[in-house]
Amino acid sequence: QYVLKVLVQSVQLLYMLLRIEQPSYILLQNPPGLPSIAVAWVAGLWWGSRLIIDWHNYGYSIMSLSHGRSHPLVLLAKWYEKLFGRLSDYNLCVTDAMRKDLWVNFKIKAVTLYDRPASYFKETPLDLQHNLFMKLAKDYEPFRARTELSPGADGSAFTHRDGSSGRVLSARGRPALLVSSTSWTGRESLPFPSQTRGLCFLTLEGAALPALVCVITGKGPLKDYYKGLIQKLHFKHIQICTPWLEAEDYPLLLGSADLGVCLHKSSSGLDLPMKVVDMFGCCLPVCAIHFECLHELVKHNENGLIFRDSQELAEQLKMLFLDFPSLEGKLQRFRENLREARQPRWEQSWEQSWEQSVLPLLGSRE
Fold first, then answer.
1. What is the C-alpha to C-alpha distance for residues 105 and 112, in angstroms, rounded to an integer?
2. What's the rounded Cα separation, in Å, for the pair 333 and 259?
3. How many helices (H) and strands (E) does the chain have?
4. pLDDT tens for residues 250-293?
């Protein structure tokens, strides 16, 4: 079935590529690269086009998660990526670690082009936060107000609108809002059930710790399984919510949160989680699980923290949320550092990065 699928996709993709107007360049993201790298190379020969591969990871390393690194299919996929990767004219990649690995193992020369957050990933004003929380409160109990409101006022667990002035204010004694996202595939270190003791530990010590609302977004094949595990948990001060958000609400949620948590572990150890790029675009500090090249994005004790296990994450959460919502702690300092970093670096558009890093490769043709 797998072989048949590759053959059918090869014919379909080649048919489409030969019907389009003659391109000067064919830009291909990898993965997925099987069969698209070979098909794009053939189409390039037909059209006389240059092939540019944008390496975001290795397809064979993702395949190895389910089959193991020594499986014949994985070894074949690695040989395929190495062979056809060398036939490209130009190569881009998302980290310096991948650029070095491409040269050492594949003899492919690449240019690093870091991912950038889209312009709509930014801090969310308080009035838009209120609108989002009120919308989510209709379907999700953790967002609902926890105290009685005065006549004419409306409110959520995090914000309320004053009945007389109409101003939106942060709710007194509000919980902290922690956000994570996952594709629910098992490729990430989801903290259930073995790591839930890390969350339990939060409730045992520290009277100055706030209540915590953990929002885990995304959809995938194992979501119902993990939701079943979550429902068996009985925390006193922690609520876990697994909403499916509309596309326009996800940036608003990141811009409203107090802390992001990233459980992504790269299959190759050479790519960076886009979810953290988006969080940083919203000036949201992050706790991220360690892997080899994560330091190219998350600077420990500067814009977030890196942890290796649930116990270390629990200690970091306790430290960051101590005396919440004080403006004097590390959480606020990380946010200020992200705001400062946005000015010269993050505010640089993706188009500007392209012009500086990629256009010089293409020369006078474009």
1. 17
2. 12
3. 14, 13
4. 999 999 999 999 998 888 989 999 999 999 999 999 999 998 89
Length of the chain as a residue count: 366
State both tokens at 141. 């109990």
What is the 3-state secondary structure of 233-297?
Answer: CCCCCEEEECCCCCCCHHHHHHHHCCEEEECECCCCCCCCCHHHHHHHHCCCCEEEECCCCHHHC
Q: What does the pLDDT read at residue 151? A: 54
Closest CA to 350 of 99, 121, 26: 121
The stretches of 34-170 forming alpha helices (DSSP H) are 36-47, 59-67, 72-86, 96-106, 126-137
The continuous run of DSSP H or E covering 9 comes out as helix 2-19
Cα(260)–Cα(180) distance, integer angstroms: 6
Sign of CA dihedral 299, 303, 134, 321: positive
* Max intra-chain CA distance, the chain: 72
Distance CA 324, CA 270 (A): 35
Band (164; pLDDT cuts 50, 70, 90): confident
What does the pLDDT average to over 67-85?
A: 92
Task: Give the pLDDT confidence score for residue 191 in this predicted structure.
Answer: 52
Mean pLDDT across 290-313:
93
Contacts of 278 (CB under 8 A, 6+ apart): 117, 118, 121, 251, 254
Q: Give the integer Cα–Cα distance in Å for 181 and 151.
A: 37
Cite the DSSP H helix spans in 87-218. Answer: 96-106, 126-137, 196-202
pLDDT at 183: 82
- Residue-wise pLDDT for 12-63, tens only, equals 999 999 999 999 999 999 999 989 999 999 999 999 999 999 999 999 999 9
Cα–Cα distances (Å) from 136 to 68, 143, 217, 250, 325, in that order, read 41, 6, 13, 12, 22
The distance in angstroms from the start CA to the end CA of the chain is 42
CA distance 120 to 248: 9
Beta carbons within 10 angstroms of residue 271's beta carbon = 23
Average pLDDT, the chain: 87
Pairing mode of beta strands 159-161, 154-155: antiparallel
